[in-house]
Amino acid sequence: MMKNKKGIKLRLILFGLLALGMIIVAIFADKFCPFDPLQQDLNSAYLAPDGVHIMGTDAYGRDMFSRIIMGARISIISTLSLVAIISIVGTIIGLVCGYFGGKIDMLVMRISDMFLAFPGLVFAIAIAAIMGGGVANAVVALALISWPKYARIARSQTLAVKNSTYVTAAVVIGDSHIRIMKNHILPNIWGPILVTAVLDIGTMLMELAGLSFLGLGAQPPVAEWGSMMSTGRSMLQTCPWVVLSPGLAIFISVIIFNLFGDSIRDAFDPKLNN
Amino acid sequence: MKYTCKRILQLIPILFAITFLSFAMMRLAGSDVIEQKMQNTGQVVSEAQLNAAREELGLDKPMITQYFVWLKNLLHGDMGVSYVSGKNVFDTFIEKLPATILLTVSSILLTIVISIPLGIISAVYQNKIIDYIIRLLSFIGNSMPNFFVALVLMYFLGIQLKLFPIISRGISIESLAMPTLTLAIAMSAKYMRQIRATILDELDKDYIIGAKARGVRFSVTLFMSVLRACLVTIITLLALSIGSLLGGTAIIESIFMWDGVGKMAVDAINMRDYPIIQAYVMWMAIIYVMVNLITDLSYRLLDPRIRLGDKSL
């Protein structure tokens, strides 16, 4: 058992570092690019991968590798902000609903039922279509359909700890509602929410890229993985690197975040920890 | 029976919500139908003419009145005409729906054919090499966005091996193969995991030991009892994946040029053809809600514990 526990910790550190590495590359993307990702050079359009351009060049002679690194900034940072927004907003809504209960709770839960009754991606497509293209709009569209999940988890967790002795004690000594929620309930419910959020990063990354692929997210010439694949699509036959390398970038980042999510889940799982 | 009635009654507010949201969506899109129409004819019009036209179409009435008028037309199968083709939206939708249903059903069937045997193998040979391979495949499948899978298949099966046409040539088996495979890969990855977990859970139960003690062959127990127990999981998975499947078909259909409602919707989005988008969103939501209802009802047929009202479930 000891060995198992150690293994979980090791995996958590390893995948955590990998995920952190990706985030660092995303934030300082411009420092890592060998070429200017927006610099066009029509003389070197559609170059196959070689020593100079390790992933080849696209229709405008832009270096694919640099564009993919730059794309990490939009893809990863917007995904992380999306997950942060929905988990924080969802948690607050669920926490407040679970804590106070009553009519507001009923109303909010019915609204979240309604969102859950819609097929998510179809709804996101509709919202993004109304609001027009743009990364921010795609993030808003996905946020609108994904918050109910977090609200539900936070609410059920709150209901579970609301009647504990320590909460009653806090009420007795006259703590304010906000203080009770912040100091006594939140620290006891954030575990499952964090695990859900980290496991959600991969899915959200794919959905965001999917919206961009449909032309509803990032707009060219901005380097974003989904839209890069979409614009390169017609060249699949002759220059597959233009399409497949951004896809590979999505694939690898999703794998890293999923592995990280799995290891966080295992670390939080009391069954494996004891 | 009482439960069935209750569920069907619950559907009513949801249907109202869906239709109202779809209706509101058109308004939010900020496109004034009248201005759009007038601009299309290319004439310069005065504000008075615009108002007269608005009055004629009832657009000067409060939004809620307009909604009920729209709903009445909807029930008569009138969803307006496409901005682009000028054709009746409802007819266009119905015309393209069979292709999408065919794609959805075939990918669900393929998913079942792939994931049940692999899920069983993976559970029965838990922690053996074959289990690790299946779990690795499932992990990979879960980490690939469907459009990437589509393009990879297109590149290897379509361009390199020339097995299937890259672009759909009407409704045929060859054209159906790659879109179906794409959708099935992503779903199978999820299903395998869940089926494996359910079977492992089931194999831990006392009745399995009982059957073993009585000398029942393992394969008999597996197929007669364990698989039956998995049915509920599989049905739940199907219901859950209908939502992402409907969204997924939009992307996959437009990649493979499969002429269904998904491709229609993506084309409409690019053309800002709002009546079509509206019809798509509304009908997809209605189909989704209906599928969920049918699933909930089917649990009761499949699992007597639910039928008998066991609250612990």
SSE order and pairing:
The complex is a heterodimer of chains A (274) and B (313).
Chain A: H1 2-27, H2 29-32, H3 64-100, H4 102-117, H5 120-131, H6 135-162, H7 165-172, H8 177-213, H9 225-232, H10 240-268, H11 270-273
Helix pairs in contact in A: 1-3, 1-10, 3-4, 3-6, 3-8, 3-10, 4-6, 5-6, 6-8, 7-8, 8-9, 8-10, 9-10
Chain B: H1 2-28, H2 33-41, H3 47-57, H4 63-75, H5 89-124, H6 129-142, H7 146-160, H8 173-203, H9 206-213, H10 218-256, H11 261-271, H12 274-302, H13 304-307
If you had to describe this structure to a student in words, what would you say it looks like?
The complex is a heterodimer of chains A (274) and B (313). Chain A is an all-alpha fold. Chain A has eleven helices and no strands. Chain A has a single domain, classed as MetI-like (MetI-like fold). Helix content of chain A is 76%, strand content 0%. In chain A, helix 3 runs antiparallel to helix 8. The termini of chain A are close together. With 313 residues, chain B is an all-alpha fold. Chain B is 79% helix and 0% strand. Chain B has 13 helices and no strands. The longest helix of chain B has 39 residues. The radius of gyration of chain B is 25 Å and the shape is flat. Chain B starts with a helix and ends in a 6-residue tail after the last helix. The chains are: A mainly alpha (274), B mainly alpha (313).
Give a quick precis of the structure.
Chain A is an all-alpha fold and 274 residues long. Helix content of chain A is 76%, strand content 0%.
Oligomeric state of the chains present here: heterodimer
| The CATH superfamily title of the largest domain in chain B | MetI-like
- What is the gyration radius of chain A calculated from CA atoms? 22 Å
The secondary-structure element order of chain B is HHHHHHHHHHHHH
CATH T-level fold name of the largest domain in chain B: MetI-like fold
